[in-house]
Amino acid sequence: MKPNLITGNQFKDQRGTLFFNNDFDLTNIKRIYVIENKNEDIVRAWQGHKIEQRWFSVIEGKFRIQLIEVDNWDKPSKNLPKIEFILKSENLDVLHVPPGFISCIQSLDKKSKLIAFTDYKLGEINDEFKYPTNYFTI
Fold first, then answer.
1. 37: closest CA among 97, 116, 130?
2. Measured between alpha carbons, how far is 135 from 46 in angstroms, rounded to an integer?
3. CATH number of the domain that residue 53 is part of
4. pTM of the predicted model, to two decimals?
5. Are 94 and 5 in contact (CB under 8 A)?
6. In this structure, is residue 137 part of a structural domain?
7. Does residue 63 lie in a domain region?
8. What is the tens place of the pLDDT at every residue in 86-130?
């Protein structure tokens, strides 16, 4: 399974704007949280999950999310290819990150907010993998 973007949209009329994503199925969601980095220099890298999956949507501003599919969780190759997504709050797009990927998340605008959805409750499984920010080659 590969990461995919579930496209949202918006509807505007004289009352304002309605943001929606009719293709995002929340059936498996057990937990949500919001990420708001202190500033645009903060990079949350590299962490991910073998089993757990994530869905990300920007609710304010803009974020860069880079993903790497891990080949060996004990000692990943340092030159694995990165997939990059730029998510904006304009259409309520949702990025699905399947199991087996790690992420690097950076806000690109001040006061940006990223909502994250997961399919496991906190502490339900032991599936957190973290690597140093400079572990992977650019």
1. 116
2. 8
3. 2.60.120.10
4. 0.94
5. yes
6. no
7. yes
8. 999 998 999 999 999 999 999 999 999 999 999 999 999 999 999
